[in-house]
């Protein structure tokens, strides 16, 4: 069995967890368990004998049985039965020393989510509370608790924030999950940058709509084309990039390039900023391969988590022979074959680089066989390799066993000072059974051992950063080329007279034709000088002004309703409009780009929907209400 996308140990854990969850749900789907009536005895048919499960599968199978007992007790609502099921799990962990209960946690999370889907969120939360003592910060447990609490309404959303923060911290600290979390949540910046550019191009196109059309309509009319063909050609120019199959961003850049001569200084600066902001697309594209990297295999995972099947020899074939012998001895310890484990670790004394682990495990085997004096000497020898928490704890257990409470307490305090968290996890195993059990030490992960596992599995499929791919190069160069072309066009327009748009009537005119750069000559004479116009021309001009102002009002109201902030930019209040439009785009990005749930590598359950979804929805609602109030205040 190869690691594939995950290490073999995690793959087996997932299969075990799925099996446990199904067993739990099947067991709890009906009425409380009752003993079925016994059928009359019948002659046993002659069947072919099948071998029982291999000893290596016993921990995983035992754990699945404890899970079904726990689910049955929770569904009955019997606290004593729940406590008994918890003691069973503790006894199992005690039997196999450092057995990881990740499959039980994931199976309980799977069962709890099923209870939540059935409308029994409180029962699901009770199940999580029953198992959180073994892995309080497990991502599946935290995510499931957040999902169940959110079913309780707004109050549950608020109470789930601490778990959301803890889950976020776990994702950021995990080397294999960090990049996926960043790509997921930074995706809102990508969408926000796109919305900003599209919204800005649309707003500027509407603000300078008449001068915009004048760019191509005037030359075409001079050639004698009718209005309909002129309109079709204009539509083809504006939508040309999309019709050619290019990115819609190209159409927005084309609009801004054509509008360059008409923009005022503040609008030119905003356009340049938004074009540079599009570089976030190639930056996030460069991060995406990191988010899809496969997690490295782990020897600790193979040793501590219960395996459904024995680890194939091919998986460990590239490890040094001493490491392979150590893992064989570890397997013997976990299955309580003390004599074989003693022989395996005795053979590694003086030959294996991890002498602290070898001597500790040898002492564990000696103690379980009744050689207490030999175990004490071997623990003392193991301690010479360094103050290790497990060795000190084992010495404390032996001291308490011979009623030397002073030495036992001293060794216990030393062990707790060396590794407080690991000490807490191991000392909890003492509550499961009354007999004394010392604890072995697994073989730690090293870069060389991980590399050997990776090579034996055929290597990890790691994609490199797409710096040479055409799509990446286009995404990188397109904003830069668009910005350069825009600035060149703006600079060239400063050296020559160019058409602009009258703010009163909307008629395009050349900037040299009027003393007022924002008002055409006719409006200047009509509204400022109040002379020089015939009565008929005056009436016609007033009608043009009224039509333009009416259209402007409708566009302004539409932007107030649909795009908060763009209405201010449409009237020329660039800074105020941008300060309102940027939060709106970020809020929409929170909803659309970070709201979905993601299943992280090595886990069977997806995380709950991001909290950014609720925050984004709240911000969008507030920004819309704030924008719509402008209509009410204007009417008042």
Automatic annotation (TrEMBL):
Pfam family, one: TPR_16
Family matches, as InterPro entries: TPR-like_helical_dom_sf
Name of this protein: Tetratricopeptide repeat protein
TM segment ranges: 179-203, 224-243, 249-265, 470-488, 581-598, 610-629
UniProt keyword Ribosomal protein, yes or no: no
Keyword Membrane: yes
UniProt keyword annotations, A-Z: Membrane, Transmembrane, Transmembrane helix
